[in-house]
Amino acid sequence: AESVELNGYPRERITIAPDGGAIAYADSVLHILFSDGSVAEIANSDSFADDFSARILWGATQWRVAGTAQPVQIPLPVCDGAQPSRLRAMDQGRVISETVPMNVRAEPTTSGSLIGQIPGGETFTVLSQAVCANGYAWAQVRYADFEGWVAEAGSEYFLEPDQR
Predict the structure, then answer these.
(1) Residue 102 maps to which CATH number?
(2) pTM
(3) Which tens digit of pLDDT belongs to each residue from 83-125?
(4) By residue range, what is the domain housing residue 151?
(5) How many domains does the chain have?
């Protein structure tokens, strides 16, 4: 097996996010490198640099350092022509209309193949943070026995976080 190093640290000192979208390592500064090229740095991280692999915890929409540090929320997307997204991965969502079902599509676009519908007022599980396409914020969801994409919002909201 080939050893990978980053800034002189062996692979054991590098933590990769479960989705592969970011990596992190620490010296006196915690460095989070995201796949889009952005970097987050947290100074004064000496307290966990020695036990780094056990102290970086990754989640679907945030990362945190174990201990007294506060979680950092990844901002939800704001899509051109659409209301700001309100649904987070692994939350429960709900169709706002009690009477109009929501189309579930194979891709996050109005031209995506229709694979099912979520009845009005029903709840579902959000699988990933929204993406922008065709002037809508699209959420990937699971409902009953299928998974697909639904428009969370355009100029008005169609879905909301389930508060029940």
Answers:
(1) 2.30.30.40
(2) 0.57
(3) 999 998 889 999 999 999 999 999 999 999 999 999 999 999 9
(4) 92-161
(5) 2
